[in-house]
Specification:
By secondary structure, this protein is mainly alpha-helical. Helix content is about 70%, strand content about 0%. It is built from 14 helices and no strands. The radius of gyration is 23 Å and the shape is globular. It starts with 11 loop residues before the first helix and ends in a 12-residue tail after the last helix. The C terminus is likely disordered.
């Protein structure tokens, strides 16, 4: 939905509170309060720790995914990059590389995977859906082909403990500092820089953005590289947290990331969305999943509920845009026409 000058004529409180992002934040608070009151052990510190550890990879990948979807593209290969970086970390560690060096190589390979996606989408002009479906299979196949069906589990205990340690007695994982740092960087880039305005312009109209001076191809290429690099970082965290490198690590994670991004108010058609809403969307999915698991609900049922949330989020965007357009047309039709000064009537 495109914003107009009239939209910014509303008071600041209305522009902040009467938004889809604010509605998602309110829903997070409501669901959290309900779970705290009705779900056993949900208010425990250990539950908070595991909830945040579970959503950390999704939070990380959702940052660049938000920008990619705002441009009107999509990256379905992120979970496969997580798996490939996990395998590289394990194999390189087995061959004598230290964890920092192996992690750095994994990050570089993740960026190269994103660069391949970006080249095919931005330079060649292929649709991102088709490209990333293909690279999803390619990167996952490479991960399984390198390691086979075995797993690498002999990681140093100090590194695996670092991935799960908390900040003091708060129950908040220490790795959340990495997410907060990246969240600040992506927020500044998207909402407070010319680069971010270009991202929105591309989503609203790629050709118009090009004639406005936006480097469309370069912007999309950079976003896919960032998506690959951050997905590799999530893969390093995922591996150290569970202490296991496998080719099928994080299988299906891309669906949770996309569901959270769309639930957070980002339009699948591009041109609209805020990172604050996306973070709230990730937390909402994490809270719902955690509460349902504590009540003994199976993973299959949880996936059905998340899928329904995804469908409803996409439908609601279209419905809200339609309602706004209808209301705008009615307001224009009801607005009285003024007679120009100096023109009389016969």
């Amino acid at each position: 939905m495109t914003r107009t000058y009239a939209a910014y004529a509303h008071p600041l409180w209305r522009r902040l509170l009467l938004t889809r992002e604010a509605a998602v934040v309110a829903l997070v608070i409501a669901v959290s309060l309900w779970a705290y009151s009705n779900v056993p052990y949900f208010g425990d510190q250990l539950t908070l720790t595991y909830l945040l550890l579970d959503v950390t990879p999704i939070l990380l990948i959702a940052l660049p995914m938000t920008l990619v979807i705002i441009t009107g593209e999509i990256d379905l290969s992120v979970a496969s990059v997580v798996g490939l970086s996990s395998v590289l970390l394990g194999v390189l560690h087995e061959r004598g590389f230290s964890i920092p060096v192996a992690a750095l190589i994994a990050l570089v390979v993740g960026a190269l995977c994103g660069a391949l996606n970006g080249y095919l989408v931005a330079r060649v002009g292929l649709p991102s859906l088709a490209v990333t479906i293909g690279t999803l299979a390619l990167y996952r196949g490479l991960a399984i082909g390198i390691l086979g069906t075995k797993a690498v589990t002999d990681f140093p205990s100090d590194w695996t403990q670092r991935a799960s340690e908390t900040i003091g007695g708060t129950g908040i994982p220490a790795f959340m500092w990495v997410f907060l740092l990246l969240a600040v960087v992506f927020t500044l880039a998207l909402h407070f820089s010319p680069f971010g305005r270009g991202v929105y312009d591309i989503g609203l109209g790629s050709e118009a953005a090009h004639f406005s001076g936006v480097k469309v191809e370069r912007t999309k290429f950079v976003l896919f590289v960032l998506s690959g690099a951050v997905s590799a970082l999530a893969g390093v965290f995922y591996t150290l947290r569970f202490g296991s490198a496998r080719g099928d690590n994080a299988a299906g994670l891309e669906l949770q990331v996309i569901a959270a991004v769309l639930l957070g108010g980002v339009s699948i058609f591009g041109g609209r969305g805020k990172l604050a809403g996306v973070v709230a969307g990730v937390l909402l999915i994490g809270i719902i999943s955690s509460a349902l698991r504590l009540q003994g609900i199976t993973v299959n049922v949880i996936n059905i509920i998340i899928g329904l949330l995804l469908v409803l989020s996409v439908i609601s965007t279209t419905v809200l845009a339609w309602v706004s357009d209808v209301a705008a047309r009615r307001n224009r039709g009801a607005r009285p026409t003024k007679t120009p000064a100096g023109v009389g009537t016969l």
